[in-house]
Structure formats: structure tokens, C-alpha cells
């Protein structure tokens, strides 16, 4: 039995919402460090590792609501940093040094499309 996107899943807690909040918090903290605020090198390395782990979880966790799907796509299409010539979060993840993260990013859209096709009623 496949899941469907509808009222029964919209009322449930979508794990993507919490992961999005976590990833946004890490990006904001890292941006503060890039703006000259006091973050040690070790602190920045820890933030980047946490950001990569959270992004991996975002790319590999299936949203359970239409809202979750939409918010996830919007988030991944944002510029990773506040520079005009910067890549989107998803594009940047495709070239990450972490092989597990880059593979998850490269296969994300295919997996998402498959999931949506399976969830949609015929």
C-alpha cells in the first residue's frame, strides 16, 4: 500500500520541517562566522560537519506532506551563501568533499520524483 499526499499525512509531523529548521540554523551560524563574528576554526569545522550531516538527512528523508515537499525544494534551491555568483544548496552539495553527501545530492531529484509518483493517487 503506497502513501498518498493528503489530509491524513498533512496532519502528521513531517520530519523535513524540523530538519529544515536545523539546517537553516547551521547556515545562519556559519554566516555569522564568515561576517567576522567570533567563531574558532574548530567551531567552524564543527558547524560545517553538522551542516553536511543535516543536509544529507534532508536529501535522504522522505517528506510526508505536500508542504514538506514544497519547503524542501525551495530550501535546496536557495543560494548556499549570500553571494550572487554562488551555487544553490543542492548544486553545492553535488560537489561536496563528502562522497556520501555528493551522491545523495546527485540522485536526489530522481528519488524525489519516484517517491512523488508512488504517492500520488492514480
Summed up:
With 122 residues, the chain is mostly helical. Helix 2 (15-34) runs antiparallel to helix 3 and helix 2 (15-34) runs parallel beside helix 4.
Structure description:
The chain is mainly α. It has one domain. It is built from 6 helices and no strands. The protein has helices at residues 7-10, 15-34, 41-60, 66-76, 89-94, 99-119. Helix 2 runs parallel beside helix 4 and helix 3 (41-60) packs parallel to helix 6. The two termini are 13 Å apart. Mean pLDDT is 83; it is low at 1-11.
Which properties best describe this structure?
122 residues; mainly alpha; 6 helices; elongated
Sheet having the most strands: none
List unreliable stretches of 5+ residues: 1-11
DSSP strand count: 0
Question: What portion of residues belong to β-strands?
Answer: under 5%
- What is the global morphology? elongated
Helix coverage percent: 55-70%
N- to C-terminal distance:
13 Å
Mean pLDDT equals 83
SS-based class: mainly alpha
Can you write the helix and strand succession as a string? HHHHHH
Radius of gyration: 16 Å
Q: Total helix count?
A: 6
Overall structural domain count: 1
Amino acid at each position: 500500500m503506497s502513501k498518498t499526499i493528503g489530509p491524513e499525512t498533512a496532519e502528521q509531523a513531517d520530519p523535513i520541517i524540523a530538519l529544515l529548521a536545523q539546517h537553516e540554523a547551521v547556515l545562519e551560524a556559519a554566516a555569522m562566522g564568515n561576517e567576522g563574528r567570533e567563531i574558532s576554526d574548530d567551531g567552524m569545522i564543527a558547524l560545517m560537519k553538522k551542516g553536511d550531516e543535516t543536509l544529507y538527512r534532508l536529501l535522504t528523508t522522505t517528506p510526508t506532506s505536500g508542504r514538506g515537499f514544497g519547503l524542501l525544494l525551495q530550501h535546496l534551491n536557495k543560494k548556499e551563501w549570500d553571494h550572487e555568483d554562488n551555487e544553490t544548496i543542492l548544486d553545492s552539495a553535488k560537489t561536496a568533499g563528502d562522497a556520501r553527501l555528493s551522491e545523495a545530492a546527485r540522485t536526489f531529484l530522481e528519488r524525489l520524483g519516484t517517491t512523488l509518483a508512488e504517492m500520488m493517487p492514480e
